[in-house]
Design a protein that fits this description.
Layout (H helix, E strand, L loop, with lengths): L1 E6 L5 H12 L2 E3 L9 H6 L1 H24 L5 E4 L2 H14 L5 H15 L7 E6 L2 H11 L9 H16 L5 E6 L9 H15 L4
Parallel strand pairs: 1-3, 1-4, 2-3, 4-5
Helix pairs in contact: 3-4, 3-5, 4-5, 4-7
Length: 204
């Protein structure tokens, strides 16, 4: 069983991964953030480091997917391989922060990797407004995120919505995190778990 959690920066992916892993007793797969050698440089100079960062993420994500598919353990995954190629790289390209040459190179590599892996059994999308994302980013206080531009977050949100509306690779569950505060309210977490159980019961 492979559940993957998707959503914009600050939407609560890591928190939900932790909570679901604890509830189901499944193995969590977290996104590497603190040990990322490009992230701080990227936020200081997006144009210079965009391609390097996206290739790093793609490599990490592909390795993670291969390990998940070679394992017999049920897994809850923080962020998916799709998001880099469907959301972040196109957004950087459209903003002029990644050259067309780099973007085409990146997309070609992603398409090859995608042909070798399977979609998650259930994709959970955490939908959030920009004010809520900004609040959560400020709350966690990561220095390298302090310079994130609002137009960058807005562009990502638009691309997430477009991607999710056309997602056909498997089952999907959408959680509105402006309304559902699963980190702070047990009843909200219970609602999320009930909705996941309803989806999973149809997978067997």
């Amino acid at each position: 069983m492979h559940i993957a959690i998707a959503g914009n920066i600050g939407s609560g992916k890591t928190t939900l991964t932790r909570l679901l892993s604890k509830h189901y007793g499944w193995e969590p797969k977290y996104e590497e953030v603190d040990n990322n050698p490009y992230l701080a440089d990227f936020y200081n100079d997006m144009q210079r480091w965009s391609f390097n960062l996206q290739i790093y993420f793609l490599n990490q994500r592909f390795n993670s997917i291969v390990n998940i598919q070679n394992s017999t353990n049920p897994v809850v995954q923080d962020r998916t391989i799709y998001e880099d190629a469907r959301i972040f790289a196109p957004n950087l390209h459209s903003m002029g922060l990644m050259s067309s040459r780099d973007f085409e190179n990146y997309t070609s590599l992603f398409d090859l990797m995608l042909s070798l892996v399977k979609a998650p059994d259930l994709l959970i999308y955490l939908r959030s407004s920009i004010p809520n994302l900004v609040s959560q980013i400020q709350k966690r206080g990561r220095d390298y995120e302090s310079g994130i531009r609002i137009d960058y977050l807005s562009g990502l949100n638009e691309r997430y919505e477009a991607w999710i509306s056309g997602y056909k690779d498997g089952r999907i569950l959408i959680i509105d995190v402006d309304e559902n505060k699963f980190e702070d309210k047990q009843e909200d977490l219970s609602t999320v778990i009930d909705r996941i159980d309803a989806q999973l019961n149809g997978l067997f």
